[in-house]
Amino acid sequence: MAHISNPIETFFSQYPEYDYDPTRETMTQFQQLCRFKGWNRDPEDPEKKEALEGVRGAIAQQFNAFYGSDENDLNAWHNLYRVLRAEDIPDSVEVCKKDIRGIHVNIWDLVDYSLHGSSLPPKLFPTPEALAAYTRKSRKIYPRGNAKAGGLLRFLLRVIYGTYHEGQRKGKGKGKGKSKATSGHSGRQG
User: Region Disordered: what ranges (predicted)?
Assistant: First the structure.
């Protein structure tokens, strides 16, 4: 049977000189690719920016392929809730959309779990602040503004830079606090 590549593998196949290992974390592989290509020396390198946009697009495509992209599909929500180890899975799409806001998970980790079938599901964080701290430290940020972050994925995006007040982000000064997603570029993550 022929191997069918996933969007992450397709992204890395653009760099055949890099020895991609599909059993390892996507962000770790991307960071190694950046070092291999010498992109870490210049954060404004257009090649690095293009590659980062590409890997983020691949993350969204993989998420949608595994978890679903139709935010009105109750089966897709149930699949996601099972992976997130929800004790009580809501029986309506509306309640799923509302309740998911209380679940904080890193989108990159969630996608890697879908790829590797690990026996250890992705870590759930007790608060958006805890998720934000982990996301910043690991650099597994996903931009809420990514065009492919629709459907269920957008419901997992959280503020990564900024402060939290009663479930809403408040920026810290002009230009700061823009949302980067848990796996995100504009302050929110997923």
Answer: 167-190
For residues 67 and 76, the answer to whether their CB atoms sit within 8 Å is yes
Phi, then psi, of 132 in degrees rounded to 5: -60, -45
The structure's pTM equals 0.79
d(CA 48, CA 34): 7
Q: What does the DSSP 8-state code read for residue 139?
A: T
Count Cβ atoms within 10 A of the Cβ of residue 73 and give its class: 0-12 exposed, 13-18 middle, 19 or more buried. middle
- Is there a contact between 109 and 20 (Cβ–Cβ < 8 Å)? no
Rounded Cα gap, residues 8 and 62, in angstroms? 7
Q: Are 183 and 134 in contact (CB under 8 A)?
A: no
- ∠ CA(6), CA(7), CA(10), 5° rounding? 90
- pLDDT of 32 above 50: yes
Residue found under tokens 């759930």: 124
Residues 92 and 74: their CA atoms lie apart, in Å, by 7
39: its two tokens: 């992109």
Which helix (H) or strand (E) element contains residue 8? helix 7-12
Q: Where are the alpha helices (DSSP H) in 26-177?
A: 26-37, 46-67, 74-83, 93-99, 107-116, 128-138
CA 158 to the chain's CA centroid: 10
- Report whether pLDDT(141) > 90: no
